[in-house]
Amino acid sequence: MARSQARSQLTPAAAADTAAAKAEARRLRVLVPLILGLLALALGLKAWDERQSAEASRLIQIESEARHLAARIEAAGNVAITAISIAEGGSVPRAETASLTPGIDAIVSLRDASQSPETSRLGAGVAAANRMMEEGALIGLSAQGDIVFLAALDERNPVMALTQASQLIGQPGEGGRITLLGEGNTFGTGDASLAAAAAAGAPRPRIISAGGTRAAIACAPAGSGALSVCVAVRQPLLTRADLLSFAIFALLVAAPTFTLFGLSRRLSLRQREIAIQETRNEESDRILGLVMRGARAGYWEWYQGPGALFLSEGAADLVGIASSGRVALEELLDRVPVESRSYVKEGFSKARSIGWVHLTFIAQTSPLRWIEMRGSVSTDPVTGTTVFGGIMMDATERKQAEDRVKTAERRLRNAIEGFNGPFALWDTRKRLLYWNRAFALDFGLQDTLRPGMSHDTVVIARAGAVANERRSEEDMRTTMLALRNGRWLKMVERATPDGGLITVGIDVTENVRNEDELKKQKEKLRRAALDLERSEGRSNELTRKYSEEKEKAERAALAKSAFLANMSHELRTPLNAVIGFSEIMTNELAGPLGDPSYKEYAKDILMSGQHLLDMINDILDMAKIEAGKMTISPQPIDPIDPVDAAMRMIRRKAEEKAIHLVLEAEDNLPDIDADHRAIRQMMLNLLSNAVKFTDNAGTITVRVEQRGTDIYFGVTDTGIGIPPEDLPRLAQPFEQVAKTKDRNHEGTGLGLALTKSFAEMHGGRMLLSSIYGEGTTVAFVLPIGGPSALRFDIQRDVA
After folding, report:
1. pLDDT digit string (tens) for 214-246?
2. Are 162 and 126 found together in one domain?
3. Considering all CA atoms of the chain, what is the largest pairwise distance in Å, rounded to the nearest integer?
4. pLDDT tens, 642-686?
5. Does this model's pTM top 0.85?
6. Any transmembrane segments, and where (predicted)?
7. Residue 535 belongs to what domain range?
8. With the C-alpha atoms ordered 619, 620, 624, 625, is the resulting torsion angle positive or negative?
């Protein structure tokens, strides 16, 4: 009763305080668990942040390790490719090259290695190389744990180099960390399943949870990506260090941490990103520096505004500047010889307008060093200024190699020029590449020869200096040439290993004279023997007379052939003299003739002589054909060459009548198996007829095209045309449209007959069509493969 009264005597203020205390207690009962929960959450988040930072550092570390190993493999690949190039160059055998190259166990072609068993080291290497070629990769891993470096210098027989993977990735880390992943192959003591999952599913480093543990893993591609280097480190989900961190942070973290947690979280994330990026940048710089040092190169940048350069450590070392970093352009020029400074300045000045720079100069180092600078323009993302950046390389060995090649070429040229006989070099299509001074002088071609001339064109051009020509009976590639100055040359042609041709001439004048003297002595001996036979008595008189008569009969049977040979010499030789002297008089080479009529007379003599020579040549050729003495020598030739030669020979006559010559030829015509001289003669016959029967200011069109397996050669003129009744007989010898003496066009009527005969000797045919009063088309069609019968050889008499 007394206690109840005491409670009832509490003042309203005290009651209010009590209620407030109770409310505060209730709030505390709510806030304390909330604060404890938030504190626990804060502790957990902080612990998680620390763990993430540790894992990020671990990822950066293992990613750096993976990249370093990949860079080491790529550097070994560069060494292997260089070794393969040296071996394939032929100077050092593959096995010796492999033994001399550190880290390379074997260099072998896929064709040779494919003979090894599939389970052997070489067989596994071939299988890996085949997969690499399908994917376009240069570095791969074999099933035997070898790293395969592939070089396709020859697409038909690629070459590979093998090296043990353990030589490049080193000893595995604690508990097995490193794994090499190839196309279906692995090597190393690391966790291959985790490495394969990371390489296939994530291009960046990450943490993988598997089997109650967490694994930090990072992979780096080597080469084009067919080979990956993976580093993996396992650890428990919750370590003792994690529990200790929770206990420590529970003691240290207070209520203000809760309000700052969000900001610190964001800041820590940003700091971690910056740290990762900075670490990656440092690692990239380290790898780049490693590569630059291995290649004896450096990096440079040129800031055009202040005229300064940034030189990396390697670049500064190349030019002999003590410290790397930002240097003045003038400091670089001081390292260049005085005579080359204007060249370097001009190169940098031009770079402003062309956007790139490429300089090669000598650096005044000890010893002197050739430097090559390459670079292009870019914009600095921070300052917005234009910057030239690029690499600086040591080009001393390359320049020395170029100098050695130039010296060897100069010595070879001096040796060829020192040879007193003619020498010429031709490419695979028999186009002139090089000739010595003796070749031009002996044949009088000083102003004619030029690179790219065809072999047949040069042979035709040298004909003016050759009086006689005959092939050796022992070697068809050897020819004896009698020059008009009395000298004899033995010309030998041999093929080069690359498919070209070499022509070499030797002066054999004394040998020929000795042979002629020997023939004279043999003739004297023969005559002495005949005299001895006559002295044997009358008993042999009838036999000798019989032999003489028989010999006369045989000579009579061969009279036609002898007549042709005599006519070739007796008629052409004086006629050539008449033509030559009349041409000298026409051109007034020996001085003015005086009266202009004399010059006209000389022109008439020249035209008449040339006309007579053409008639004699046609008559002799026709007689040879009828006697079966005319032969051809087919060989692969460009069909345009003889056509072009004939057009050049007739162009002067066409220009005298203001006739327009047009050549219409298809592109990429195949070579034809035919006789160059015969085709040139056929085209010259057709063009001569076209010029003769075409009025002034007319047009002659020459058409060369492929028709199936044949080549079509046609000449179309806008001349007088041929009546239809005269077409059938025009291809007969000595046949012409007009037979009256007052016809306007002279000739023997043998041109078409010769053309028809030459075409048939090639296995082809002649075509003739005409519209009287409008023009004529004469053509011949020759098979590309040449005549199917025996092969012939044209041998025209030499005047």
Report:
1. 777 888 888 766 788 888 777 776 666 666 766
2. yes
3. 200
4. 999 889 989 988 999 999 999 999 999 999 999 998 899 899 989
5. no
6. 243-263
7. 525-612
8. negative
